[in-house]
Amino acid sequence: MTTRTAPSADDFLADFRTMSGFGATANGGVDRQAASQADAAQRTWFRSILEARGFTVRFDRIGNQWGLLERVPGAPFVVVGSHMDSQPTAGRYDGAYGVLAAAHAAFRLASAWDSNERTAPKYNVAVVNWFNEEGSRFKPSMMGSSVYTGKLALADALAVTDPQGVTVGEALGAHGFLSDWEGPEAAFCAEIHIEQGRSMERDGVTIGLVHSNWAANKYEFVVHGEQAHTGSTVIADRHDALLGASLLVVAAREIADAFPGKVHTSVGQLDVHPNSPVVVPSRVQLLLDLRSADEDALAEADAMLHRRVAEAEKAASVQVERRTSHSWPVTPYQPEGVELAAKAAADLGLPYKEVMTLAGHDSTNMKDLVPTVMLFVPSVDGISHNEHEYTTDEDIVAGLAMLTEVVGRLCDGALED
Amino acid sequence: MTTRTAPSADDFLADFRTMSGFGATANGGVDRQAASQADAAQRTWFRSILEARGFTVRFDRIGNQWGLLERVPGAPFVVVGSHMDSQPTAGRYDGAYGVLAAAHAAFRLASAWDSNERTAPKYNVAVVNWFNEEGSRFKPSMMGSSVYTGKLALADALAVTDPQGVTVGEALGAHGFLSDWEGPEAAFCAEIHIEQGRSMERDGVTIGLVHSNWAANKYEFVVHGEQAHTGSTVIADRHDALLGASLLVVAAREIADAFPGKVHTSVGQLDVHPNSPVVVPSRVQLLLDLRSADEDALAEADAMLHRRVAEAEKAASVQVERRTSHSWPVTPYQPEGVELAAKAAADLGLPYKEVMTLAGHDSTNMKDLVPTVMLFVPSVDGISHNEHEYTTDEDIVAGLAMLTEVVGRLCDGALED
């Protein structure tokens, strides 16, 4: 095995600039929805940089892209990565940074093992680009890691359709991103991501050690009214589905305001039917989320929401159907992983603190399968899911160094037992 | 000229059943948006029944379909008709009834003139199927009659695009529904339509004589917020365009409730951007209407709306742009036309009353060009813009008799001077 020089921080930044060109938008963001042309082009480029460094690139049965470096034949893998798909008008860092940092961390470790700077590892390394973390084109989000961890049935995931009726299976198959393989055996996992909040920037720390995630209750409501003429139908005769839906959007904010700083609520998606200028809407479908770090506050907020649903039904003379619901509690990442990461940050001289994640990540799934370390770097002004999302070069380079050290220690077996 | 027997009421009902098959939906309604395949198929069928009765069928420069019966060479025309396009999930009667009744009224008059049951007319008859009255695929509504009456520039109308980017000109051209012709010269106009309200049913009258239309203010608002992550972005940092829009929807209803029975408000169309589950919406576009028969009440309601817009901007930390606005006052149909129709109804023994129209119609445009008679038949339960829209066979046959008599008298010159 020949020793290769590890890519430099400048090489990393150059690769990141290249990535940001895939699906680039006019306002400095990206549009790389899952299995789109831009997503596919970026995956093809990512394959090339992995293969150039001697990694074996494979796609599994749900289109997760794996770069395998097997230095210990037959041993399980330390899985490190994130996702390269994006929201429709997204920033450059969300997910993409974590995948590229994972690859460069693995490149650095390979060189260090080759040159005997580091002792030979006990585990292999698998760089992963999870499929469809964002869930904007195909629902639900975190699809690739959900199938890999057994939380979502493969057949159900492959049958999901986008708004044009294209299935996940068709979209992945068209790009050659599917196989029968279940993916490598994981022993440990690590992920790095931007914070998507202001707390680390405010406190002046470079590395966030994620100790747990916020709890969330997510609902898909369908408001059923009755189609009528907007001009001639008297108000008392109306069953206005959009009025009912709007009352829920307003209620969601009022509920958040009742728990200042403790409960986050939102409606990100809302579809009106038939959505014609002179027709009272007959049906509105919307997605409403409640999130909190405090499970008791979340339960209170949820009870308020259900009272408000009943009030909206009455006020707009509509029926509100709770079509689907999905919730998760506050769950910890393994404390020994947080401890390992704290030691690594201290050894590297990087300022750090423990944080919670408000958003879901693929590591949220992985931590239920294997011990998992989740790291954050700061987000300038906390901007996220926005083309103006930004993290400094200094911070993303520091995060790469941190991730390299964490993955190196995981490969050394630091979390065994 | 050979005398042809006039089609019977049963023939009329059979033709109406045939029409209701074009674009028929599973729930008993129709989907015949302007220049769609279903609209085109129905126009082709309509041409055939007009030509079978000796009418000359022509399309004008904005795709209005004309059936001309020229019995007085060189004389202007009594224009009678409505529209055959529909909302996406519409009822069978709206517009379509008025076009078919116009054709059968003309067939009956032609036979009556041929057989000398009626004295020879002083004016010709033009049956018209106005293009795109509904405005669901191409905005604005009442497009064909607006161009014909000079209220909308031809070039502007032809350049309007549907959500797929197809222009009116392309859509009409693809079906061969365009020419350079400006349409026939109108002297008088008549239209019959379903009431789309409950007042006639409640009062037990068969014929409504429309004396004026409600005033309306219509606005296109665009709410500008900022895209953010629904989970991680703290509430105070959000600029939620959907919250701002929802406050406007709720305000619209509260304004209507402040003027019980006097002001109608609605938001029929609302589009969210980027409309993704975990993204705080950055932009929402919506159409908001205020209508009233009382112009003072409308002005008060409008002032309330503008106060509420400012409040919504503050509450949701968004900017609300008033992109377009369009309004019309209460305007009368010519009183001598109402009087003519009242005499005709009395002579036919049909119970009638004067009514206002809350909805816009092509006759709303035509009345500003020539003396125009607008007639209603009742709507069961007032249901409109809904697949369950219904008017009894008895009432649509009575309306046909009424329309025949009105058009006959207009052709006789009853409204001259």
UniProtKB/TrEMBL annotation, chains A, B:
Binds 2 Zn(2+) ions per subunit. The keyword Metal-binding applies. Zn(2+) 2 binds at D94, E134, H385. Zn(2+) 1 binds at H83, D94, H193. Keywords: Hydrolase, Metal-binding, Zinc. Belongs to the peptidase M20 family. NCBIfam families: hydantase (TIGR01879), PRK09290.2-1 (NF006772). This is N-carbamoyl-L-amino-acid hydrolase.
